[in-house]
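Supplementary Methods. Inverse-folding protocol.

Structures were first reduced to a discrete structure-token string of length 616. This string, shown here, constituted the complete conditioning input.
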């Protein structure tokens, strides 16, 4: 939700800021803007719509400043329009601010500032921030501090008034070539190299400049110039922070010849899965995680596991539940983070809570994790982003190592999350001795074979394309499956909705006749997943029920279906049913992709969505 960029160095800032915004555009693309200092005056260029619009604004090429701040917006308060675009300034144009997050008490603050003579020109929550900084700056104007310290102090005071989440950047003509940043519950990283420093909402946006990063923590502040970064706490105490070297390379965040990031990420899955497996799983050896050291004594006390996440990450959790229950015999509940956090779940020190988040910045998932910790549970975060907020809150973190996922629709992160659950399930089972060794070793072999099986699947995608070409104009589609295939149906349906805007429903096949079958009519597309040998006959009966009512069927299966009257069959390689979603999801990802392309939509940046949902 919203991306922020900052730069201070020796080069002209305008294009560097735009490049950064383009890399962050997946976070929001309702409007964009930049603020630089031109001849001692703050210059703001902003407009509604995509980042590229800024390039066409009069005077953009003439901007000379070698530092500035920038923003790409996912609208929360106020419609997407120029007035509501960031950066926002205080009334006197002494401070300019970009903000990612939500200020929950902005009405209260707005009233306070209005009573103190301030005027507001936008509907945003953000506009209170520069004005509050101005208000506090005036209050401490006569103190015996440097101008920089006065502005820092004013920024700290302003943030103390804010309820909600924020990552902010502040510039002022009073301290040229300096950016002040702060964060709470919204991501902000500082990339550093000789003679220049960059600020961004995420690491991949800066990989083309540096691999050395400072990860700002909640309630931390930094004063950044081209040669220096000073860190402060809320008491204005100055301290040093460690640099983190990030291994991802810049190419990983580029399209590399693919038309879209989503397609590239689908095709990266054999490799991303190899990275997830890493050295954690080997045949005839116990699974291990560098970052996890759970004892048999502890695991034996666990009487329940919660897996909590949102969207696709939650769907990965549904597969994880199946794996953990089968291998470890521990009851496992999957919950949606936004529900979990408000329903007072029954949790104590005998509960292990696992939180899954590709971005590691999803507000509901982070809040749900904090809740479990406060009730005494141990928490494990599964995330793809090194140093993301969730990893800093959890007791333990296991990284998926899938590489940067840029497309809003999650693909390789899902398959890596499921692989990680499989390794985690094996790890728990080996410690507990809850499954026989041959079962575990067979599963390991199947996990290690996954990359080559996905490659096989990706060799010929023509049938999926053919189905997409035929049905892309449909208004509704259904996805059916039983057991683990039902969890994949949910994921396939979500993928289709978010990037093709086709309404779709996923149902457990056996549930269909309890109501939804009333919606099946002549010509409707029904997509079924059939990978579990034990359930295949029952699922086929359910498909026959929809065929009888006129449905056109696509079946994704690893079974030999002797007789069938299905319209399309996509055969996928066989594997252990516990991990079959890692293979059966691939045709569904491609189906959503091709349909979206056929409709001429922006696959990577679907409407109304953003990559990381940092607001409730
Ligand atoms: O970053 P997270 O894994 O926490 O994100 C959770 C969901 O917002 C995310 O999976 C969303 O559902 C995807 N856009 C689905 O493709």
């Amino acid at each position: 939700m919203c991306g922020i960029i900052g730069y201070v160095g020796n080069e002209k800032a305008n294009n560097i800021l735009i490049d950064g915004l383009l890399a962050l555009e997946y976070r929001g693309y309702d409007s964009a803007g930049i603020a630089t200092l031109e001849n001692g005056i703050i210059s703001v260029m902003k407009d509604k719509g995509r980042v590229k619009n800024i390039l066409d604004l009069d005077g953009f090429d003439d901007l000379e400043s070698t530092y500035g701040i920038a923003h790409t917006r996912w609208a929360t308060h106020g419609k997407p329009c120029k007035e509501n675009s960031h950066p926002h300034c205080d009334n006197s144009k002494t401070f300019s601010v970009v903000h990612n997050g939500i200020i929950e008490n902005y009405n209260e603050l707005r009233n306070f500032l209005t009573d103190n003579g301030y005027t507001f020109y936008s509907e945003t929550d953000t506009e209170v921030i520069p004005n509050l900084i101005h208000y506090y700056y005036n209050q401490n104007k006569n103190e015996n501090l440097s101008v920089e310290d006065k502005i820092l102090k004013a920024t700290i005071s302003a943030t103390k008034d804010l309820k909600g989440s924020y990552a902010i950047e502040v510039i002022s003509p009073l301290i040229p070539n300096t950016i002040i940043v702060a964060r709470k519950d919204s991501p902000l990283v500082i990339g550093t190299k000789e003679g220049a420093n960059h600020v961004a909402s995420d690491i991949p946006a800066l990989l083309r400049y540096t691999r050395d990063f400072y990860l700002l923590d909640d309630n931390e502040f930094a004063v950044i110039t081209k040669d220096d970064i000073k860190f402060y706490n809320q008491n204005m105490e100055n301290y040093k922070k460690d640099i983190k070297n990030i291994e991802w390379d810049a190419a990983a965040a580029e399209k590399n010849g693919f038309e879209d990031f989503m397609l590239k990420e689908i095709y990266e899955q054999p490799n991303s899965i190899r990275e997830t497996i890493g050295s954690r799983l080997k045949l005839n050896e116990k699974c291990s995680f560098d970052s996890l050291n759970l004892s048999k004594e502890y695991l034996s006390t666990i009487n329940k596991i919660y897996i909590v996440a949102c969207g696709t990450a939650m769907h990965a959790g549904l597969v994880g539940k199946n794996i953990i229950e089968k291998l470890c015999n521990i009851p496992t509940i999957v919950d949606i983070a936004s529900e979990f956090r408000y329903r007072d779940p029954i949790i104590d020190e005998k509960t292990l809570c696992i939180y899954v988040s590709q971005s590691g910045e999803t507000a509901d998932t982070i809040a749900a994790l904090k809740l479990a910790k406060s009730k005494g549970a141990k928490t494990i975060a599964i995330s793809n982003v090194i140093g993301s907020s969730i990893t800093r809150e959890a007791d333990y973190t296991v990284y998926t190592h899938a590489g940067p996922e840029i497309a809003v629709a999650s693909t390789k992160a899902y398959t890596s999350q499921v692989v990680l659950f499989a390794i985690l399930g094996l790890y728990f089972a080996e410690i507990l001795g809850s499954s026989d060794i041959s079962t575990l070793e067979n599963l390991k072999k199947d996990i290690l074979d996954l990359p080559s099986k996905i490659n096989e699947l990706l060799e010929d995608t023509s049938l999926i394309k053919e189905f997409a070409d035929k049905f892309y104009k449909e208004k509704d589609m259904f996805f059916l499956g039983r057991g683990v295939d039902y969890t994949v149906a949910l994921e396939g349906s979500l993928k289709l909705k978010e990037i093709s805007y086709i309404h779709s429903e996923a149902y457990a096949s056996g549930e269909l006749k309890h109501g939804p079958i009333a919606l099946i009519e002549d010509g409707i597309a029904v997509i079924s997943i059939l990978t579990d040998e034990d359930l295949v006959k029952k699922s086929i009966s359910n498909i026959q029920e929809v065929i009888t009512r006129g449905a056109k069927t696509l079946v994704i299966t690893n079974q030999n279906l002797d007789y069938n009257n299905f319209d399309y069959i996509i055969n996928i390689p066989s594997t252990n049913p516990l991990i079959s979603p890692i293979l059966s999801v691939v045709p569904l990802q491609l189906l959503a992709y091709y349909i979206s392309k056929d409709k001429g939509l922006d696959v990577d940046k679907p409407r109304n969505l953003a990559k990381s949902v940092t607001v409730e």
